Amino acid sequence: MLGKFTKLEFFEIPGLASGPDAVGWILHSDYLGAIPDRHGINGLRLRVGNIQIGGHRLLDSAFPEIRFNCWTVGECHVINPKLVPNARRDDLEQNNHYTNLLGHVIPHAKEIAKACRDSSAERAKQRRLEWEAKDNGAN
User: Fold this and answer.
1) Contact at 8 Å (CB) between 52 and 20?
2) What are the strands, taking DSSP E only, across the chain?
3) Is-contact 7 30, C-beta < 8 A?
4) Cα(first)–Cα(last) distance of the chain, in Å?
5) What is the enclosing helix (H) or strand (E) of 129?
6) pTM of the entire predicted model
7) How far apart are CA 21 and CA 87, in angstroms?
8) What's residue 136's pLDDT?
9) pLDDT given for residue 135 in this prediction
């Protein structure tokens, strides 16, 4: 389901020593549901240079519920050379910088999940009010 994009958020992931490890953006929406794969834009993606690392599901584990990764659009661009893609380029080499990166992505993923849940709850509330109004009008 695709709604309207409402806000562009930029973020920076601080490095362990000096300077940032990564920078990124999230394009927030109405969060009406999962963005269909056929649109080719869903998921918080990881990039090194101009190369996508892994697929659009690579950062699923950062989300409290993995399904919410498909409700969002965003990218995290690695800029620290100590964050190195593995030989298959389906993930990064596991090290302290990688742990730091994930540790800073998780709060963003939790905020997205909360926005998804809030949007879903609001739609459920609206449906309930519509049903109650119909029931009251029928009486």
Assistant:
1) no
2) 5-14, 20-29, 43-48, 51-53, 73-78
3) no
4) 35
5) helix 96-138
6) 0.87
7) 20
8) 77
9) 78
Backbone angles phi, psi at 135, to 5 degrees: -65, -45
Rounded CA-CA distance 133/128 in Å is 9
Q: What does the pLDDT look like over 17-31, one tens digit per residue?
A: 889 999 999 999 999
Nearest Cα residue to 23 out of 110, 112, 101, 99: 101
In 4-64, alpha helices (H)? none
- What is the C-alpha separation between 70 and 29, in angstroms, rounded? 12
Q: Does residue 12 register a pLDDT over 60?
A: yes
Query: How many Å apart are CA 105 and CA 72, to the nearest integer?
Result: 13
**Which range marks the domain in which residue 86 is found?**
5-138
For residues 22 and 50, the answer to whether their CB atoms sit within 8 Å is no
Which CATH number goes with the domain that contains 30?
3.30.230
d(CA 134, CA 26): 39
Give the number of domains in the chain: 1
Beta-carbon contacts of residue 76 (< 8 Å; ≥ 6 apart)? 13, 22, 23, 24, 44, 45, 46, 47, 59, 101, 105
